[in-house]
Amino acid sequence: MKRSISITTAAALAASLLVGAPAAVADDAASSSNYVVSTRSFPKVNTAKTNFFAEATSTNVDEDSDWGGLESMNVPQTKSTAEKEAEQQAKEEEEARKQAEAEAARQQAEAAAREQAEAAASRSQEREPVVEEAPAAQPETPSVPVPTSKNGQAIADFASKYVGAPYVAGGTTPAGWDCSGFVMWVFGQFGISLPRTSGAQATVGTAVPSLAQAQPGDIIANGMHAAIYVGNGMVVNALNPAQGTQITSLAVFSGGYSIRRVL
Fold first, then answer.
1. Of 160, 190, 156, 184, which Cα lies nearest the Cα of 170?
2. DSSP H helical segments within the chain, as ranges?
3. Residue range 27-49: mean pLDDT, rounded
4. DSSP state of 71
5. Which pLDDT value is given to residue 199?
6. How far apart are alpha carbons 186 and 184 in whole angstroms?
7. Cα dihedral: 91, 92, 98, 100 (round 10)
8. In this structure, which of 36, 155, 199, 213 has its CB flanked by the most CB atoms within 10 Å?
9. Contact 144, 158 (CB under 8 A)
10. Distance CA 77, CA 101 (A)
């Protein structure tokens, strides 16, 4: 756009502004033909405008650009407290789920094992016949003939032949006897009836004053034990379930004892 202004016109305007200036001067200047006209052009001014709402644009750079090592920096990623708590809760829930699955698997395995064991036991009972246990074999009663002579030595010899016979508390036969039951049975084979207990057997017959005067076939007894004397300080007697009937010394008697002669 070009704008032009006349110097004469400008001069006239300036003159009209002068206070008290004669009007003839203006008229004379306007009528004069000696004036100069100047023209000047002013270029259009473009004003740069910035669009603050426009999105940023990307810029392409060369792949081999050197950024001073910044392109390879490992910047740690930080997380908020809420993110950390959420991750921890998710981790705990996952561990609880795994533990629950493992416990369920263990219980299933135990149940399966019990079922298999019960099934195997049931099959075993079906296959195996029930076998009744045979009664325990009783020891054979020794077959010893009773001597025809009836004296103390014969009684001692006869009683000694039953060494090894079993001991049974309350028993009165060679199948099993206790101490007084043994003495009573032996003398019974010779036709002599004796009391059942050792304390009562310690009072039968005739008392023998001392062991030095004792003879084979005499009864040696007290309230706890009874035996038959066989000589040389030895007696034959039923001892206990482990030893049965044995020939032992008089040490089997605890405390005093009575020597009695019935034959």
1. 184
2. 7-17, 23-31, 81-127, 152-160, 179-189, 198-201
3. 58
4. G
5. 95
6. 6
7. -160
8. 155
9. yes
10. 34
Q: pLDDT tier at 241 (50, 70, 90 boundaries)?
A: very high
**Six-digit token pair at 108?**
């299933």
Residue-wise over 200-221: b if at least 16 C-beta within 10 A, else e? Answer: ebbebbeebeeeeebebbbbbb
Contacts of 8 (CB under 8 A, 6+ apart): 29, 30, 35, 36, 37
Tell me the torsion sign for CA atoms 142, 147, 150, 154. negative
Q: Structure tokens of 166?
A: 């079993």
The type of residue at 202 is: A
Q: Which residue has the higher pLDDT, 47 or 11?
A: 47
Of 170, 171, 174, whose CA–CA distance to 161 is shortest?
174
pLDDT for the residue 129: 47
Cα diameter, the chain = 209
For the stretch 122-162, pLDDT in tens is 665 555 444 444 444 444 555 677 778 899 999 999 999 99
Unique residue bearing structure tokens 């390879």 = 72
- Please state, in angstroms and rounded to a whole number, the distance separating the CA atoms of residues 229 and 259: 9
Query: Three-state DSSP class for 227?
Result: strand
CA distances from 118 to 66, 107, 122, 128, 131 (A): 78, 16, 6, 15, 21
The mean per-residue pLDDT over the stretch 194-214 comes to: 96
CB 222 within 8 A of CB 252: no
Residue 260's pLDDT is what?
97
Say if residues 142 and 220 touch (Cβ distance below 8 Å).
no
